[in-house]
Amino acid sequence: MHKYFSSLKYVLSISINAFIGIIVFLILLPFVLIFRQMKSKVVGENETLLLAGVETSNNMRNISAVLAESRIYKVYVHEFIENPLYKEDGFSPWVHNIRFGVWCSSDHFLIRSGKRAIRFIVFLKMLLKIDIFFFNWTVSYLPLNLDYLLIKAARKKLIVRHCGSDVRYRPLQHAIHRSFGVSQWFGAKSSPVDLAIKLYKQCFSELTAIVLSTRDHATFQYYPLVERPYIQMPLPRTVGLSLEKKLILHAPSDPSIKGTSIVIKAIQILETCRKDFEFLLLTGMPHEEVLQVLKRTTILIDQPGAVPARLATEGFASGCVVIGGNVLELHGYDDCPSIQFPDHAEKLAQILDKLLSNQEEMETLADLSYSFWLDHFSPEAYNSYFVKVLKGQARMFSRVKNHEIIMINATTVWYEKLAVRLRYGKWFEAI
After folding, report:
1. Cα torsion through 280, 281, 286, 292, rounded to 10
2. Exposure winner among 138, 161, 385, 431, fewest CB in 10 A?
3. Residue 112 above 90 pLDDT?
């Protein structure tokens, strides 16, 4: 009964926010259309860019730093929710950090509502000032992302960077992953509310914005999307390869979905046959502490899955040997040096044992990691990529072959089946 009322309260909250968003949108649209030409751009003036949304794995801090320090853009940042793992003052000094309306996770509902209103006032001011709106995650200024339409009506560029679980519907994404031998989302529970939210966000962003994403996220992808690389500022090269006792690091943000139980069992197996390594498990630690440990890490174990994630990217930049997601068909990098994270502890223990027994292979993989970061995720690579995004020249990806067939075969409840069929416009039958 408690679960029922909790779900009802959640749906009611969404409905109220949606109603408010629609009213505000209808009131503001005529004014935006009338005043969108008020600000004339000065010839030679740098483009203004607002990076707003929710911090995910240090992305907002890295992206804003790289774009601001390029001196091509005047960069503003509006982080909606404080992340306890990252420093408030961790943004580049070249970035204009907006603190109005930023809430803490401990804030009361009424305080959050007030800060939302403050954020919206900031948005109205920035709407005439900003040339490029860049959202990280799908949280924006108005409910239902209706501010996307106001931004488009104001003839501004709109970029939305999807970040995984904001659009990923795990029960069906598991079917896509499983077709490539990955079981990261095994056991995910079906939810009509979660499905409706993910489906709406994917559909609406595709229709209104330049979407940066990956096949690992875009469960309900329809149109081709822009490939979404990570961006990582330079890090000190690790000394881990030269240590007598090699350091194996695993630093999961959420142990329940980052394969931590597999890692722990694998280490226990490895400890029965060799003692020439040190293992360190870090979870819930400030980001800076993890980076300090990377300076002496030999082998970094990221997470199971299909793609190299944020921690893996930091491992590449540090020149570590990286174990993580590496399914070419889903991430698109044919030179990714990450070793695929296996599903079983015994297999992971075998991989670690083989690596520790071969110093030359570890050094080769470490060099490949650093080169991979330099070519794809370094500031220079990201600046080049971002220019291509704005010009419509960035590399794009389509759905995997038989995407909708794979998902319709995986549906377990009627609302999943209906969503897949309505989304893709095909009343096909399951095979």
Report:
1. 20
2. 431
3. no
